[in-house]
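User: Can you recover a sequence for this backbone? Please restate the input before giving your answer.

Assistant: Of course. Working from this structure:
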C-alpha cells in the first residue's frame, strides 16, 4: 500500500492534465509544492462539480474508518488505499461518478524491506523531471475529528482515498504487495471520471512495466 507520495508540480500543470473533464475551477489558492504527502495531510484533488465542470481543491487524505464489528475496538486510523472494490463499504461511492476524483502526483514512495534490518524509502515516478500523472481516487464529505491529539481538526472535512492493485514488474521487486492505480493518459482519466462502475474498474490493474521507474532512494521526501 502507498502511504507516501509527492506533488511537486504546479497547479497550472495539474489543470492542463485534467482538462478531459472540461473547464476546471481553481480553489487551491496559493499552492506550494508538496515533496511529502503523508496520511491525514491536505493535498490537491480534482473532482466533478455542477454542470459538467471540474474543480481543483484541497482535501484530507484518508477515508473515515469502517464501523467496528461486534466486539471490535473502533479504529481511528483513516483508510488511505482502496483495494477490495467489491466491498459494500466502497461500491455505493464507486457507482457515483460525482464521487470519483483525480489525485495529482509526481512520485510515490514504497519501503524496500529487502535491505536487512532497515527499510529503504524508494521513490517511483514517470521520469527524473517528475512529469505529473494521477491516482484513481474517490472523495466524500465527512464530519468528525481529524489531525493529531496535539492539533485536532474538528468539523466538516472533504476526504479522499485512492485505488491500489497488484504491483507491476517495476514496483514488485521493492514492494510486491501492491501499487496505486495510475492514470497516465487522457483516455484512462476520462474513463475513470465518466464511465459506469464496471468499465471504470477495468483500470484497477498493474501499470505497464515502463509506466514508472525508480528515481530516488533513502529519504521520506522526494527531491531531498
Amino acid at each position: 500500500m502507498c502511504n507516501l507520495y509527492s506533488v511537486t508540480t504546479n497547479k497550472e500543470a495539474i489543470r492542463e492534465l485534467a482538462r478531459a473533464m472540461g473547464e476546471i475551477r481553481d480553489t487551491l489558492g496559493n499552492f506550494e509544492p508538496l515533496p511529502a504527502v503523508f496520511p491525514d495531510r491536505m493535498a490537491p484533488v480534482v473532482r466533478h462539480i455542477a454542470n459538467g465542470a471540474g474543480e481543483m481543491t484541497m482535501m484530507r487524505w484518508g477515508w473515515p474508518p469502517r464501523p467496528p464489528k461486534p466486539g471490535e475496538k473502533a479504529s481511528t486510523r483513516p483508510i488511505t488505499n482502496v483495494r477490495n472494490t467489491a466491498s459494500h463499504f466502497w461500491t455505493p461511492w464507486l457507482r457515483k461518478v460525482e464521487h470519483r476524483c483525480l489525485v495529482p502526483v509526481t512520485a510515490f514512495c514504497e519501503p524496500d524491506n529487502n535491505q536487512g534490518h532497515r527499510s529503504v524509502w524508494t521513490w517511483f515516478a514517470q521520469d527524473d523531471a517528475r512529469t505529473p500523472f494521477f491516482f484513481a481516487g474517490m472523495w466524500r464529505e465527512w464530519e468528525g475529528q481529524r489531525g493529531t491529539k496535539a492539533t485536532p481538526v474538528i468539523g466538516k472535512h472533504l476526504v479522499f482515498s485512492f485505488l491500489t492493485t497488484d504491483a507491476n514488474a517495476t514496483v514488485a521487486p521493492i514492494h510486491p504487495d501492491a501499487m496505486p492505480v495510475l492514470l497516465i493518459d487522457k483516455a484512462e482519466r476520462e474513463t475513470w471520471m465518466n464511465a459506469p462502475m464496471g468499465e471504470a474498474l477495468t483500470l484497477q490493474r498493474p501499470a505497464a512495466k515502463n509506466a514508472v521507474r525508480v528515481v530516488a532512494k533513502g529519504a521520506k521526501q522526494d527531491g531531498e
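That completes the design. The domain at 5-217 is CATH 3.90.1680.10 (hypothetical protein yedk fold).
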